[in-house]
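Researcher: Let's run the pair from yesterday's discussion. Sequence first, then tokens, for each.
Model: Starting with the first of the pair.
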Amino acid sequence: MKGRFILAMAATAALILPEMAVAQSAGAIELGAVGRYQIFDSEVGVDNAPGIGGRLGVFFLPNLSVEADWTYAEPELEDQPGFQGRTFISHELLQVRLLYTHWLGENAGLLLGGGYSYDNYTRPRRVGVRGGGPGGLLGLRYKFTDMISTRIEGYGYFVPEDDDTLPAPRPSTFNLGVQAGVSMMFREREVVREVQLPAPPPDTVVVREEVEPPLPEGTPSQICLATGENVTIYITPQGDTLVGPRRVSVQQLGPGVAFAGEYATGRDWFVNDEPIPFEDRSYAKSGGEVGLDCNNIMRVGEHMGVPLFANTGAERPFETLYVPVRPGVWQAYQTDLAAVRGQ
């Protein structure tokens, strides 16, 4: 090869220099060596040929750069003699592009570029008339370190026809090729300044004591539920009922509040004063509604889903049964022990 390889040799030599940069970033410079194999359009009139050269790029964003490739090749002539009996010509390819890198992982990235490409045939002899046009590139980059990476790419460019070129009119051509190379990244080292900061003030510990608000005032009272358990409620001076360990107002809880157990209120048989059949006897309402202590009664059965209770220690047949009307309110039912159903 000729002395035109000076740029490529300089790029190759750069790869063995001491490390001067650590990572690609805005302001970084890429310098590398490139080898290509070009597939010429049949209109050019030369054989496909390898070439070698170098590249220079400048990053103005972390993933976006402007770069130029220059490569030199000596393709063989296809069907006509060259200048002074030569069988090959000299071909220089200059490609200038905007290059975007899309990182696929920590070390691998996809390259996508577009720009302008120029063919320079220095010994044309009616072959390969000089000219340029738009070109594109698609490739991959792999980083060995933050400084050194390798690239492999496919490229193509179109040169439009021109009837005014010399020594012959230039036909439109579309050339393709592949190229690979090794690059080194250079960037200005960041200056790290040590700044002596004043000592931080002593830690201040703030202790906050959560004080529970006082519970609402009320007179405690026990009510007996249909489950046979006593619960404590509180009655405020205004007549409101407070329930639960936090003494929440039943009015605040709204219609969704419910005490455990099944109650007779609203059931047809209770509203219509129907007798309760139990163990071959009939029991009818006796007296008004009363309050009971669950410690003094025991469950003995149920009537249509509502539990039935009798006095603790009472023996069968029971004289009195108790039906839970609503929480804390009971209705007594009595029977005539001498009257047996069926007599």
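Model: Moving on to the second of the pair.
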Amino acid sequence: MISPELRDVLACPLCLESRGCEECSREGVDHSACSRDYDVRVRCACGGPEKSRLVAADGALRCPCCGIEYPIDENGGYVDLRPRWSLRADTLYANHDFHERLLIRDTPPVLSAGVKAAWTRRLLGLRPGDTVLDLGCGAGKFALFHAEHGQRAVGVDVAPFFLPRARKRIDLVVADLRRLPFRKGVFSHAACLDVLEHLDESGVSDVLVETRRVLGPCGRLCVYTHAMESSRLASFQRGVNRLARSLGRLGLVDSQRERLRKSDHVNAIRSHEHFDALCAAAGLVVSRRRYYNVVFKAVVEDLWLRLYEQARARRRSKTKRLAVDRPVDPGGAPHGRGALLAARLLTRLLMLDVTFFGRIRTGPFFGLIEKRAPDAHAVRPAPSKRAGEPES
């Protein structure tokens, strides 16, 4: 949907107003300064100037600074505020066929997705009435989950492949996360799950800077991503994955969707210290971190459920005699109340991976990120060398 509250906070993704603090004001300049000085001004210690407010213009929204008109899809339930130029090559997640192959269904977050949803809410301390910006919302599952718990959720993603229920129930924006099209300080909370690993280092830095700008003074961001390191416990998961690959060669396990999901990964975060440095350079600080060592998940979701799904797909293929050119749906989501109840019970089991092993340093992690107190210096480009030890 496109609510009046959403329209009030939308802005041009590319244009900054001339007024800011002493460091970032640019009086008496034309639109060319928007692109020329954007990176410097948006990184100012004050949070940067406001972005140019959009005005209604015959079924679209127009920027009074650059004159670009952005379409509103009332029937589709979203507004398209992608910049009219690309910051880098399009992601696979912007491809319709890619989304079709992922077989995303409108089901509650369960299993590892349920773990991520629960820890996001726990770290952010969400309460009814809070605003939550879901960065890289995908089909909109997590944003719907927050809305059902009383938050006003806004989902933003680079591609418009949203669930029909999401189009009706939550505000949706198609945009590039590296140029967020919102006014300054309009969200109290933000979440970014399974997104940063798809960006290069400059992209991660841009997302952090943009998120800092749209969060309010006490705003919080929860991320789930991973650094390129692991723990001894991770060897158990690698062993399970090797077993799954062996079973896959025998036709007993299908790991295609998991391979598809990770095929777009760039993995630019080299270590937790590297991520801390990127946050610091964006005017943010990681105030809490919980690691995700997958032990129960490896056995339950990565092995046992895949065995079950493949066996179920083979039975369906035999009983229904599917045509050769018709894809077999391998499952992956609960069907019916009994299956949903079982999935929720298994989610509780998977939560133990963070409860028991959440302080053992490894690559995947949940991070609670807050705004640093502003000082007299502008936010600097992220350093590439390692900083101090991360906080847990």
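Researcher: Give me one sentence on the second I can quote.
Model: The CA atoms of residues 16 and 51 lie 4 Å apart.
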